[in-house]
Amino acid sequence: MKKEDPNEALKVINLSLELDPTSFEAIATRAHVYVALNQYTEAAEQFRVIPKDTFEGEQYVMLQMGKGMAFAGSNSEEEGLEIFE
């Protein structure tokens, strides 16, 4: 799988989530792929199911950045701004 192919990544992540639908790491990765595909509404839906205390440090920062982009792109700006409060 090439890093530049988000559609292929999405297929692999979806297969992974079939095996473990509670994997927040896989859900977060799928959300970031949706952002890369400019599918912000789908990304926002994925980010919403991840508990706030799931990640720490750099992973937390990346999660918050992805959330901000997804919520802004899906016309959920108010929800996106709450991330940074």
Describe the structure.
- The chain has 85 residues and is an all-alpha fold.
- The chain has one domain (6-82): Serine Threonine Protein Phosphatase 5, Tetratricopeptide repeat (Alpha Horseshoe).
- The protein has helices at 6-19, 24-36, 40-48, 57-73, 77-82.
- Helix 1 (6-19) runs antiparallel to helix 2 (24-36), helix 2 (24-36) runs antiparallel to helix 3 (40-48) and helix 2 (24-36) crosses helix 4.
- The longest helix has 17 residues, at 57-73.
- The chain is globular and about 35 Å long.
- 26% of the residues are buried.
CATH class: Mainly Alpha
In the CATH hierarchy, the third-tier topology is known as Serine Threonine Protein Phosphatase 5, Tetratricopeptide repeat
The outline comes out as globular
Could you give the order of the helices and strands?
HHHHH
Which architecture does the CATH hierarchy give at level 2?
Answer: Alpha Horseshoe
Structural class assignment: mainly alpha
* Major sheet details: none
Q: Extract low-pLDDT stretches.
A: none
H/I helix tally: 5
- End-to-end gap: 37 Å
Rounded average pLDDT? 88
Q: Can you give the helix content as a percent range?
A: 55-70%
Keywords:
5 helices; 69% helix; mainly alpha; Serine Threonine Protein Phosphatase 5, Tetratricopeptide repeat
Helix and strand layout, with pairings?
Elements: H1 6-19, H2 24-36, H3 40-48, H4 57-73, H5 77-82
Helix pairs in contact: 1-2, 2-3, 2-4, 3-4
Short précis:
The protein is mainly α. The chain contains five helices and no strands.
